[in-house]
């Protein structure tokens, strides 16, 4: 059976609750799950929910800390990074073929003295990815991001034609893995300015950067179209005109995506040597320990990871 790793994330967040609530779901799947986390914390939470550890689940115990849900500490931040570092080691050795990461905060990397904005950049460097991108999967909408965690005022200067072309290639390869027919794939590129620049009246990035990228992509056999005004593009994608959207900046892509797929969406890192998925929500410290965290996005992440492992 397939070996899939799961990191606990920040133990003070909703990760432990989401994992334990998913025990009945995990037990039904034809896979072995390797959990990187805190054994005592997981066992204690399982007991409170009157759930047994699934027989196909193995916990690698990497911490033993006292946690107050919703109150992250230096110790919990360091533990969260240790979980992911150990999972990366196992991935590089081929002991797990995919990884689902439960949420940690960007503060965890800061506390650990690591210069990363989040899981995506950390995994890409440690797994030696040549190119990578942050992508989001839902049944109705699929989105990749040309830039990620940047202040809005820095987005324009960060636009790189080669980088956008790489993202188009990665998105196309991903689509071919999940779509039955490759014949009619269409990927759309968002404009950065209102009305996609209105012919240069509202900004020149479309004409100077994005239009040439679309031309190059088509020359290389990538079905990229645009750039299109973002305010209408997502509507047409939902109507079936496009299979995938490349958004220029974080909120341009994630506002519409999360409106549709906040509960069941999946974050996928494209370009890694192993499959990596995660829920689309964060640590949610404000609801941690209250018993109301929804495991749906995590479970969708597990399902997609197992599906992709067979084709990665």
Automatic annotation (TrEMBL):
GO terms for molecular function: metal ion binding; NAD binding; oxidoreductase activity. The keyword Flavoprotein does not apply. It comes from the Bacteria. Keywords: Metal-binding, NAD, Oxidoreductase. This is 4-hydroxythreonine-4-phosphate dehydrogenase.
